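@channel sequence for tomorrow's demo:
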Amino acid sequence: MNCPQCQATVLDDSHFCHQCGAEISKAATNTTDTLPSQTLDISYLQRVDAVTALLAGKQCGACGYDTCAENAEAIVKGQSGYDSCVGTDEKTRHQIKALLGLPPQVSFWQQVWRWLTSVRLAIGLILALTVVSVVGTLLPQNAQPMSYIEQMGPDLYLLVHALQIDNLFQSWYFLGLLLALLVNTLCCTIKRSRVSFRLLTRPMPEHTIEEVRRMDHHLSVPLAEASDALDRVQDDLIQQRFRVTKSGGMLQAYKRRAGRLGVDLLHISLVLVLASAALGTFYSYESFQVGHQGETFELAEGGFSVRVDKLWSESYASAARVKDWYTTLTVIDNQEETLTQTIEVNHPLTYNGVSIYQASYGSDWWEQGHYTVQVIRSADGADLGTYDLDSQNAVYVPEAQFTMSYVTFFSDFSLDDDMRSYNRSGALNNPALYLRLQVGDEPPQEAWAFSRTDMRGLYQTHMAGDAAYQVNLVGMSAEPYTGLRIAYNPAIPYIYAGFGLMVLGLFLNFYWSPRWVWVVIDGQSLHLGANARLSEQFEVGLRALETVRPPAQEREFSHAD
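structure tokens (generated this afternoon):
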């Protein structure tokens, strides 16, 4: 019969036109416009042909089947969805549904599932994550607010902080994109793995001669003698380590069946890596610890303590540059010393999943500094003596009747354009001590003590004003410290497992491809066929035919792709 709208030939039992999708009512099928000569009874194989022609034809395997022909056969049998081919558009899916007699509308949950398993969604999420990650690499993350303010000013920093760009990899939108990609990959994995499980657990299907001849790769060979041809082909396939099943006049052989799981393992590995990344984002932590020799600090997250036994640095013999930093640490767990290890850059100590890295080394001028200052009366230049102070203890100057106390120390003092002081680096290029002077009950005064002579003159001329006393920094020392970065990420073992599965999946997919072969005899001819994405997967069965073909017979080898 014909479609009443586009006049295309359709099946007698069709409810929708496979060309335009128009509904075909019983009244329309009984009209006098339909001629008996136009009625076509499409067989099962013709249905498979029609669906195969509508598929993308890329043999990509994304549908879960090795070839488009396998997928088309599964669609006709109802074992695969009409929309399982990711390379088809909406119009093509509409035509496949009409060809199968399915209604054009899909349920809400079918639309949701199609969207969750969409390749376009995956590509969009990956692009969005890439853009966000690039922004995160251009702007330093989790730095101190003052460093951002110095770079971009307070107004722009407030906007950056509100958008969480300074903590981008833990922002709600980055985590949302990551979780969305995880859900998308998980749904795609479920969709494909269901097909793989069905294909691996069911026995190899039997095929007729016509079906074998219509496979992607097939070969027909006239036989010199058909009596034992199948037995000889069977023996040869067994020598090639195929698993062979003989049923009547047909051989079904396969090997490397596990290779079918290669792409599935890749999907599972991606799910594991993405889930681990999300787990690490929520449950990992990182901190910084300053340690001095002999000190013990507790790691509450790990449930143990660490003692700093020794710390030192190593310099190059021909230069003053530091070559490496070292710290010897002892782990104390349940009041017992359980591990002692010397760490250096890129060689951390790891205990109970917590890793301690050597991050920095230097002199602790701020907490463990000792300073010697000289007090001079500005009026007559009289030297009122030298005094020692540190960050914890103040000193009293009797002749000036004030108390000096430590505020902070700058190892490399500098001024910006607005005459605001800041520490330019950790090197002792321009040491300066910031002090507080307290005279009785009067409001405290602030003063700078410089080590360099030129800075003392600059300070007295432009900054000190009419201060009655001048304080000079004449000596300083500090205890060395080690800077330790402490990191814990419970997802790391799972990430390694995910990458291990990925390597296994790549190996199975590229180096352990499954081989499926069907051999059937029809009279004095032998037909061999295989459904495979690569033609060389078919060639493995050709050697078996050398023992059954006539010596002068030229083979006819056909690739449907």
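heads up for whoever presents: The longest helix spans residues 172-201.
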